[in-house]
Design a protein that fits this description.
Elements (H helix, E strand, L loop, with lengths): L1 E5 L3 H15 L2 E5 L2 H10 L4 E5 L7 H12 L7 E6 L4 H10 L3 E4 L4 H33 L9 H11 L5 E7 L2 H8 L1 H19 L3 E7 L2 E6 L5 H17 L2 E3 L2 E3 L3 E7 L6 H17 L5 E3 L1
Parallel strand pairs: 1-2, 1-3, 3-4, 4-5, 11-12
Antiparallel strand pairs: 6-8, 6-11, 7-8, 9-10
Helix pairs in contact: 2-3, 7-8, 8-9
Length: 296
Amino acid sequence: MNILVVEDSKLERLYLKDFFFNKFNYNVLVASDGYEALEIHNNQNIDLMVLDLIMPGISGFEVCEEIRKKENNSDHYTYIIMLTGRTDKEDIIKGLEIGADDYVIKPFDENELRVRISVGERIVSMYKKILELNKKLEYESTHDDLTKIYNRKEIYSRLKNELSNNPIIAILDLDFFKKINDTYGHLAGNYVLSEFAKIVKEIVGDFGEFGRFGGEEFLIFFKGNILESQALEILEKIRNIIYMYDFNFEGQSIKVTVSIGATRNNGQYNIDQILAIADDNLYEAKKEGRNRIIYK
């Protein structure tokens, strides 16, 4: 836990530094004025701040206000405790209104400060857990649980946003996948899907986006600035690597091929129409013998 002590009195600054280190074993940083505090806060991950309100230069009020503005659009939150020698309620109310979380009146009682810091630490820890949970929920809502790539809803949404740039779109389908499940079992089938996704994701890289569209069907779209020859070269690389790859599940070698239907949006189709064209091309690839690419 990182704590920043902002206090213009050298004596109190050193006292607080020792207090937080000895009582809490925090990593303690110190600043003698508001400018130094803001510089440290900009360059360090500060969890807690003990902030003197009355200082030369810029006041603690201004420091607090600036930090809240900065953190307004970020995932980070600094718990700020005001230090004030004033008992004027208006100053305390002002500090809390601009974003301070708590206050201690000087001269402070060590036990009171210890308890208030402990409360701040609990709140910071809780905030981090909530943030971590939100990130996890966001990931789960946009990614396929098995393959860890984008799910249908997310890849569809991303394609919709890219459609005006005339991307090249490809639907990939693993050939005879039901036979793989029937012969080797569903665990083997899940392994094939997961391994296939890893391979394709690595090949596609930054050239485009890749997601699971449902079952054994996957969707790639290449960003609009890619050359047609580049996109087709990547798709052929995928087809060939999958054809050559040894999907080895618990000592069993499983051979897999992939059929690909691809097209380029020319600006006259909506998302469902262009997906239908790619799907028709996929059907043609299957009809012509599978393990091939149809692009038109």
